[in-house]
User: Fold this.
Amino acid sequence: MREKLRKALNSDLFYSYKNNKLVILASIVLLLIVFSSVFAAFIAPHDPYNLASVSLMDSMRPPSWMEGGVGKFVFGSDLQGRGVLSTILYGTRISIMVGLAAVALGGTVGVTLGMISGYFGGKVDSVIMRMADVQLSFPTTMIAITVMAFWGRGILKLIIVIGLATWVTYARTARGSTLSLKNSEFIEAAKLIGVSKTKIIMRHVLPNILTPIIVIATVQIAQVIMLEATLSFLGMGVPLTEPSLGLMISDGYKRLLSGSWWLVIFPGAVLVMIVLSINVIGDWLRDTLNPKLK
Amino acid sequence: MSLLKVDNLKKYFAVSSGFLARLRKKESYVHAVNGVSFDIKKGETLSLVGESGCGKSTIGRTVLGLYEPTAGDIYYDGRRVNDMSEKEKFKLKEKMQMIFQDPYSSLNPRQKVKEIISEPIRTHNIVSNEEMDDYILKLLDKVGIDESYLNRYPHQFSGGQRQRIGIARSLAVEPEFIVADEPISALDVSIQAQILNLMMDLQEEFHLTYLFIAHDLSVVKHISDRVAIMYLGKVFEIGDKKEIFDHPVHPYTEALFVSIPKLTEKTKENFVSLEGDVPDPIYLPSGCYFHSRCKYASNICREVEPELKEIDGRQVACHLYD
Amino acid sequence: MQKEKILEVNNLKTYFYTREGVVKSVNGVSFEVNKGEILGIVGESGAGKSVTGFSLLRLIEEPGEIVSGEVKFKGQDLLKMSEKEMNKIRGNKISMIFQDPMTSLNPVLTVGRQITEVLIFHQNYSRKDARRRAVELLEMVGISSPEKRIDHYPSQLSGGMRQRVVIAIALASNPEILIADEPTTALDVTIQAQIIGLMKNLIDKFNTSMIIISHDLALISEIADKIMVMYAGDIIEYGDKGKLISEPAHPYTQGLIDSLPVLERDQKRLNQIKGLMPSPLDLPEGCKFKPRCDYAGDDCPEGTELFEVSKAHFATCRKAQFFSKKLMRGVG
Assistant:
């Protein structure tokens, strides 16, 4: 264990991390946001889903440092009297969960199909890649909106739809890497030993194409969180009872003209910080892990 | 009896052509191997020698089943490989193995030495799991890799050490026949001799039969029993090493010998042995494939393809000896 | 007759500052090249031979650095020049040929464009004259129907032809020194013979000096006047080709010669040098070859200084001569 830790601390990745202040900052910001949203139940001033802790008396309070603000609601409160800070913490948790789950689903489907497509080639390849082409000719957001409009709101539905709407990116990268790998001598060696095709793909192809996939997945988390926010903003994402960042922004937006800016600015800022820091980390990963991939 | 027999083997590769060409059913092919026959006796080493594009690596890979032959037959131990069932073909993989050219791409960079070598053992159930570690250590010892390196990754080794690990992997299934595809051409000079010597030692110890592929005649001298000189997917000259090295007969073999750099105290006067380039294997020349570069070429060479004939104790395909 | 000294390198050191430590790729080498002379640098990968070649033209990039030394070209120290002055030397007075012709040619420009560019930039040719001269150059390097080939792209040429084009570009500016780094390693033997023959002819014709870098001692022995053998950043033997081949002084040089397969001789096993090249980060003190050397002992020379073995023949060790196997070697 200690050996492994020593190795990790000595790796090129950690070395490049140590020397990149922007990435350190981004990861600290991201870590803080993720940590506080995961432990929202302990950190948040109150539970916005618990009706007992919400009182209409506290409706539409401005941030605490402004006139009319109270200490209980640092970032102000919304129409139902829920604290913006508490809602952000809980909302971020949903956004991040949807992001991770959708990326996991899209990544698994995409990488699997991409590897199959690249390794076997021929008709299988044609069918899979034509499917990808067709899907790519529609904007991802449009596909998601259309499906969600018919299917209705729901977190699980959202994960499935976003996951399946984004598999193509992974599939293309996985296919490309597989193609350049499948004629390497170590794959030939495995074939000559008689290793089954499934095992060749799992043991020899997959571990060697993971690097670009990890880079893409990192950047995709940010994009998926944005997509989730977009859908929720348009009222086709998470249910009203479990507001994510997107839904909060959408709610606040309706009251922006009445001067309640805090309902939009704070969740908006958190969303921007999440997306920005993930993108910074993703770019750094791409440059460090694979300088050829641009 | 011969262990491996290759009969009139041909292998063409389709060149990916444009959409329009495919529509007109006009596909072009790289003619990598154009009718090659030879056999290898048990315990013997046959070397295929020729410059890039002569089809020597393609033959090695087709023999092992990595490529389907376009035409022709391969017999192992008297049995036609194409007649074998899938199960028999899988069994055959225990007998035929390969040593690769590039020690950097022939080992999976994400696997440890132990995993690399245990894969063939597990796949063919060579030994039980309890005996596995002992067996791997014995193999590593045979190829001269220290047992403390068992848990290292390929990038922690030098080219020569990687090549040794690759050799251990191919020996793991206790094969009889090994195709060695330019096993030393990517290595440093001082390491080349080490690997060649190792391969000869292993051949003696395990009674291996080698099909040794090389672009350099000087390399194959020590390891071969017989040599085949190839050009554009054809065998030009094949016979006992001694005969061919003592006096090459085919003009191309002769040119290959002259081209090899030789250690000398005096500066060489005349370098060029052969003008021009190898013709494009998509559009094969008429007659003898070598006529465009041959200083002895006459009319018959441009029109009629020469057959392999027995001359001076070896087989030669050249009109000079009609 | 006193020959004109055209390049003099003194105590050149090029280090690479990597995370794991300092790699002393070139660790204090000194040599000289006379006009019209061919110097061959021989060594295995990691010996520092290519880095030496690149250092002469100051083509060392981060994390590498030329730490000290002098590279005197006709008396001027190239290491002290401004980058602007250096640009007038690089590719003009001193040209370089690389191993892989595909990477040294620009794939999206025609052959003609790439040659005329050099002529226009370094020699102030007009566009029209440059094209005429380019055709001449292509003809000179043995490319058939040069008027047609001049408009071809590199991908339309074979490997041998590409290397001929590279030579044409290198010679377009009438350089005084040509540095060739493994110029034929990517080529087949018969093509290698063509290219080496071509370079030798052109060098002789224009009385150009050449530094040819290769791992192949036999190839170098066929073309060079002087040979320099490098091992782990040091020159371990340097001198007149004839002497170095016939009476190698350093055990490593002898090992290289012995491990070459000799066509004319019957022998079952090849002579081999035992062991591996040491890690560049963990070099032994003193003689770096010592761990692999058959003759190593307490009486080994302390430093890595070259001393004169005989006239025009230097080495850091002469043990090979005491244990000479020359009679068994049969050098041709």
User: Anything to note?
Assistant: Chain A touches chain B at residues 184-186, 188-195, 203-204, 207-208 (CB under 8 Å). Residues 84-120 of chain A form the longest helix (37 residues). Chain A has a mean pLDDT of 88.
